[in-house]
Amino acid sequence: MPESQLLRDVLQALEVVLGVFAQHPWLLIPVAVALVVCVVLASPAGGACEYRDPRRGFTVAERRAAFERAGHRCEHKSLLWHRCTNTPTQGDHIFPWSRGGRTTMSNQQALCPFHNSRKSGTVPSRLYILRLQWRRRRYFPAGEPLRVEWRQGTAWR
Q1: Which helix (H) or strand (E) segment is 108 a member of?
Q2: Residue 73 CA to chain centroid, in angstroms?
Q3: C-beta atoms surrounding 5 within 10 Å
Q4: CA–CA distance from 63 to each of 57, 83, 102, 148 (Å)?
Q5: Tens digits of per-residue pLDDT, 30-72?
Q6: Full-model pTM
Q7: Which stretch of DSSP H or E encloses residue 90?
Q8: Contact of 20 with 66, CB cutoff 8 Å
Q9: For residues 112 and 92, what is the distance between their CA atoms, to the nearest angstrom?
Q10: Cα separation of 36 and 126, whole Å?
């Protein structure tokens, strides 16, 4: 199909959509709400912080406890697929230490080297945090807190 024909088809489809919205302007409300929800869930959950935890790394005992509570599997899960099956060897700050994340068990996740290097120092989205807390219900031992607490008094419910 030539590019000019494709462009004409796209413009024609756009005219049809705009015609529908012109006849039924109330249809813009759910579209706008869905757009706002997508933007909020995809935005970073944290940001730069003046405070940094003086302790940078997790202890061996803390990492071991994180691996055990994760069932000795990497906690990374892609958007549509299953959890990573690799063995975790690294305790990762969910909210990066460099961005003000605390070095606590509630801000630690067990990751394999590949996913830890891939995540690097990025601040996770709100959707990532909510999905992590939801997943943890399946494999965390009973009584373990599921909430991700990244700063003093700041937790995701």
Answers
A1: strand 108-111
A2: 18
A3: 9
A4: 10, 19, 14, 16
A5: 888 887 777 776 666 655 556 677 888 999 999 999 999 999 9
A6: 0.67
A7: strand 90-93
A8: no
A9: 9
A10: 13
Q: 155 phi and psi, to 5 degrees?
A: -140, 155
Q: Which amino acid is located at 50 in the chain?
A: E
Q: Answer whether 93's CB lies under 8 Å from 63's CB.
A: no
Q: Is there a contact between 84 and 115 (Cβ–Cβ < 8 Å)?
A: yes
How far apart, in whole angstroms, are the C-alpha atoms of residue 113 and residue 142? 27
pLDDT, tens digit, 9 for 90 and up, residues 106-124: 999 999 999 999 988 888 8
Question: What is the β-pairing status of strands 154-156 and 90-93?
Answer: unpaired
Q: How far apart are alpha carbons 146 and 148 in whole angstroms?
A: 7
How far, rounded to the nearest angstrom, does the alpha carbon of residue 126 sit from its chain's CA centroid?
6
Distance set, CA 62 to CA 58, 110, 121 (Å): 6, 10, 20
